[in-house]
């Protein structure tokens, strides 16, 4: 197991641009970021006090696997990935904890929506469907059961990207057109659906279902190309279900955070700040992140 980190501390070496829920973003130069995935974990929108060792490494290497796989399947795809190598400026003592949890990426203007694609009806989509028969205001076939695959193929259900502390809001694809303009909105929805379909096929070959996932895109202002950014197709940005346990007509176990969520609810700690996970929760949760990584990449994780 590697040394776990809750906060990276490179402020003396590189300017810290932002800390997200999971990542710390540093500026290497005007066009390049160091994208550091920490071992922070959040549940019900609250970050836990203690880390899940190796989580940031698993997310970074899994995202890298997907960038490679998707780029070879979809040759026109552009991603923000540059290298897993650390900038030479990082001093030796800091390098071991940063290696494999950091990537150098192109710094881009990120489009202000989350490009969510759903192949199966669950979560907020299932909730909305039960009351109105729609998903993000989109008419979908009647008579669907919980966790069922959308019979006419995956659907694009964008949300707004909320400011820190706010909640994202589901929107109809027409509202995404209003926010982004018709050209970018159409290119983004088409690309998101293409990426989901390619990823779903790959995951199924490893006995995993990707029920839904969230992509983020940036703009290369010189070439006007849409670029895939952020993390992709990790347990933090996607719902993975195992094929063995899949059963229509009920909620599926969340692949990664079920244990943590059940524990929080059982202890009455759901949504509370300042919670430290028990050792058992940490170990069990880590195992699920390792399992997702190993199933999807087909490689053993050697910590
Ligand atoms: N290539 C890129 N250039 C600039 N920003 C990026 C790039 N790729 C991803 N980002 C942004 O970096 C942040 C990643 O951090 P993290 O995943 O921890 O955030 P989050 O908790 O998902 O969201 P928030 O930013 O709301 O805290 C996101 O805000 C994302 O939009
Ligand atoms: Mg994120």
Automatic annotation (TrEMBL):
Signal peptide: none
UniProt-listed Enzyme Commission number(s): 6.3.2.6
GO molecular function: ATP binding; phosphoribosylaminoimidazolesuccinocarboxamide synthase activity
Pfam family name, one: SAICAR_synt
Group of enzyme by EC: ligase
InterPro entries referenced in this protein's UniProt entry, alphabetically: SAICAR_synt/ADE2_N, SAICAR_synth, SAICAR_synthetase_CS
Keyword Ligase: yes
GO CC annotation, single: cytoplasm
UniProt-listed PROSITE patterns: SAICAR_SYNTHETASE_1, SAICAR_SYNTHETASE_2
Residue ranges of domain SAICAR synthetase/ADE2 N-terminal in the record: 17-272
Pathway of action: Purine metabolism; IMP biosynthesis via de novo pathway; 5-amino-1-(5-phospho-D-ribosyl)imidazole-4-carboxamide from 5-amino-1-(5-phospho-D-ribosyl)imidazole-4-carboxylate: step 1/2
Keywords: ATP-binding, Ligase, Nucleotide-binding, Purine biosynthesis
Single Gene Ontology BP annotation: 'de novo' IMP biosynthetic process
CDD domains in the cross-refs: SAICAR_synt_Sc
Record family assignment: Belongs to the SAICAR synthetase family.
Protein known as: Phosphoribosylaminoimidazole-succinocarboxamide synthase
Organism: Polytolypa hystricis (strain UAMH7299)
Phylogenetic placement of the source organism: Eukaryota, Fungi, Dikarya, Ascomycota, Pezizomycotina
């Amino acid at each position: 197991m590697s040394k776990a980190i809750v906060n990276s501390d490179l402020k003396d070496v590189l300017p810290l641009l932002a800390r997200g829920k999971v990542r710390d973003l540093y500026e290497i130069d005007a066009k390049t970021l160091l994208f550091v995935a920490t071992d922070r974990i959040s549940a019900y929108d609250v970050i836990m006090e203690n880390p899940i060792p190796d989580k940031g490494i698993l997310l970074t290497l899994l995202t890298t696997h997907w960038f490679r796989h998707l780029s070879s399947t979809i040759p026109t795809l552009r991603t923000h990935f540059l290298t897993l190598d650390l900038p030479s400026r990082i001093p030796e003592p800091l390098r071991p904890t940063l290696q494999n949890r950091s990537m150098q990426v192109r710094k881009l203007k990120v489009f202000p929506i989350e490009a969510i694609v759903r192949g199966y009806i669950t979560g907020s989509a299932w909730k909305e469907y039960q009351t109105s028969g729609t998903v993000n205001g989109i008419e979908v076939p009647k008579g669907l059961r919980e966790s069922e695959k959308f019979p006419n193929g995956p659907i694009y259900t964008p949300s707004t990207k909320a400011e820190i502390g706010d909640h994202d809001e589901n929107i109809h694809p027409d509202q995404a057109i209003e926010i982004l303009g018709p050209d970018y909105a159409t290119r983004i929805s088409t690309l998101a659906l293409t990426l989901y379909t390619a990823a779903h096929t790959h995951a199924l070959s490893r006995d995993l279902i990707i029920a839904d996932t969230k992509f983020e895109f940036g703009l290369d202002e010189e070439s006007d190309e849409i670029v895939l950014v952020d993390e992709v197709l990790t347990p933090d940005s996607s719902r993975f279900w195992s094929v063995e346990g899949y059963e229509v007509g009920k909620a599926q176990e969340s692949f990664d955070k079920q244990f943590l969520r059940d524990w929080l609810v059982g202890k009455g700690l759901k949504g509370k700040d300042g919670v430290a996970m028990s050792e058992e929760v940490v170990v069990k949760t880590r195992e699920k992140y390792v399992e997702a990584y190993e199933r999807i990449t087909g490689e053993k994780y050697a910590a």
